[in-house]
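Researcher: We plan to redesign the surface later, but first we want a full-length starting point. Tokens attached.
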């Protein structure tokens, strides 16, 4: 039997090429080898959102990107977290076996508490418990994530283990599977690519928009004049050349070192590379955007399939925890 993969993504709206290299490309490939469940985690988003006006739009745009990039709703289960409410029930039950001090020492909790001191909500502390519920509700064994999620995965394993030892075996211990590209730098060359740092290129951008964005990228800071020789190994534009112009990367590197091409030439090549790599994606996305029924169907089909698994696991959990009502009505 194929192992089950689960991964969740917060609904950040249109995906950028960092999401593509860091996660989506991998999600698509994993479909070949695993039974995959990919979830848009809208409840997790509420831990940091104060304004939810854009939430539904962001979910929709992200789903369009997922389908256009090749996540296949026939093969994989694609769904929205809150559409399978069993996860919230499991979250509550798991919270009873999770020591508070495990949660208070999670680095992402401390970081978020620092970033939003005015909104250190209870859900923020419980974030990793909800994430654990996501994974173990589907008894997933493999969880593709970036490096930043490793502490959460470790906690998920500990919670699963503790549940199993207290109540009897229900959950496999999920394994993290690091994505091949754990970190994609943004156009500023300093921080990771992220919409919130405004250093990203959207996958759905037009060739003209891609060119404009690429032109804003910071390159090797030591190369100040066209005649200076460059250092591709420290240049974030070159990092992207390797992904989007793999066949020309060697040639570009040599030309940069010998100052035979300048940064503007290099960026033009990169913009072309990104545009042509994503052309089939753009076409498919355009076609999908004209078929909202297809998207709704994919999501409701996904939620239905997910819920069938979820009900079964939750039943087992409640039984093990002693929550199955022992009716006396039919006793003699
Ligand atoms: N915490 C993850 C992130 O911020 C998102 C997430 C929620 C997730 N539930 C998950 C990832 C379950 C993997 C598995 O990226």
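Model: Full-length starting sequence:
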């Amino acid at each position: 039997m194929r192992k089950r993969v689960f991964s969740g993504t917060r609904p950040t709206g249109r995906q950028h090429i960092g999401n593509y290299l860091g996660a989506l490309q991998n999600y698509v490939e994993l479909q070949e080898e695993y039974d995959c469940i990919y979830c848009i985690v809208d409840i997790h988003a509420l831990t940091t959102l104060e304004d939810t006006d854009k939430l539904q739009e962001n979910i929709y745009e992200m789903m369009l990107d997922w389908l256009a990039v090749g996540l296949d709703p026939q093969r994989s289960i694609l769904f929205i977290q809150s559409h399978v409410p069993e996860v919230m029930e499991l979250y509550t039950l798991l919270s009873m076996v999770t020591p508070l001090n495990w949660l208070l020492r999670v680095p992402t909790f401390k970081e978020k508490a620092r970033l939003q001191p005015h909104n250190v909500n209870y859900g923020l502390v419980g974030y990793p418990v909800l994430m654990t519920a996501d994974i173990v509700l589907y008894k997933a064994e493999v969880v593709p994530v970036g490096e930043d999620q490793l502490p959460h995965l470790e906690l998920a394993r500990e919670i699963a283990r503790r549940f199993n030892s207290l109540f009897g075996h229900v959950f496999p211990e999920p394994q993290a599977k690091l994505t091949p590209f754990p970190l994609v730098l943004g156009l500023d060359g300093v921080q990771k690519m992220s919409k919130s740092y405004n250093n990203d290129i959207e996958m759905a951008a037009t060739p003209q928009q891609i060119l404009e964005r690429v032109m804003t990228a910071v390159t090797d800071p030591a190369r100040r004049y066209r005649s200076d020789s460059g250092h591709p190994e420290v240049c974030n534009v070159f990092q992207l050349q390797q992904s989007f112009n793999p066949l020309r990367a060697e040639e570009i590197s040599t030309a940069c070192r010998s100052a035979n091409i300048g940064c503007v030439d290099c960026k033009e090549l990169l913009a072309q590379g990104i545009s042509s790599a994503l052309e089939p994606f753009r076409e498919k996305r355009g076609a999908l955007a004209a078929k909202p029924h297809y998207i709704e169907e994919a999501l409701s089909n996904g939620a239905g399939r997910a819920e069938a698994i979820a009900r079964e696991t939750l039943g087992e959990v409640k039984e093990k925890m002693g929550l199955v009502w022992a009716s006396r009505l039919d006793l003699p």
